[in-house]
Amino acid sequence: MKIDLENSDRLYYSIKEVAAHFDVNESLLRFWENKFSIIKPKKTETGIRQYTKADIDSIALVYHLVKVKNMKLEGARQTLKTKLDEESRKFQILQKLEQIKKELEDLEREFE
After folding, report:
1. In this model, does residue 92 exceed pLDDT 90?
2. What is the mean pLDDT of residues 71-99?
3. Cα(32)–Cα(42) distance, rounded to whole angstroms?
4. In this model, does residue 1 exceed pLDDT 80?
5. Which of 107, 109, 58 shows the shortest CA–CA distance to 87?
6. β-pair partners for 51
7. Which of 5, 10, 46, 54 has the fewest CB atoms inside 10 Å of its own CB, making it the most exposed?
8. Does the pLDDT of residue 6 top 80, yes or no?
């Protein structure tokens, strides 16, 4: 189930919700947290992870590099280390273009 980050006013999301959003296992999120320094969810006193929208954006960037672009973990880490701003901008542009495409498809369906 996708999280509607644009229209949600929630501050934190559980690891279960974030894993479902990306259709990955919770263990993969914990693994990425150890491998990528940009993923830093808040932890409660009992160790429960709480993800912010910024955390989810960071995970989306890692997901894009590893799952979509098929980069190996070390390559993705190096890319994020040296070109974080550039990769973030590229990813944000891709997300915006996908959103525009969806809106155009919705408009097209309305006119049919």
Report:
1. no
2. 84
3. 15
4. no
5. 58
6. 13
7. 46
8. no
Please calculate the CA angle 78-22-12 and round it to the nearest 5 degrees. Answer: 95
Q: Which helix (H) or strand (E) holds 50?
A: strand 49-50
Residue 3 lies in a domain: no
- How far lies 52's CA from each of 10, 81, 85, 100, in Å? 8, 21, 19, 24
What's the one-letter identity of residue 32? W
Cα 30 from Cα 6, distance rounded (Å): 25
- What local confidence, expressed as pLDDT, does residue 78 receive? 86
- Tokens 């590229």 locate to 90
50 part of a folded domain: yes
CATH code of 23's domain: 1.10.1660.10
Single out the residue of 89, 98, 11, 93 nearest to residue 56, CA to CA: 11
Rounded to an integer, the average pLDDT of 54-73 is 92
Cα distance between the two ends of the chain: 28
Tell me: pLDDT of 88 over 80: no
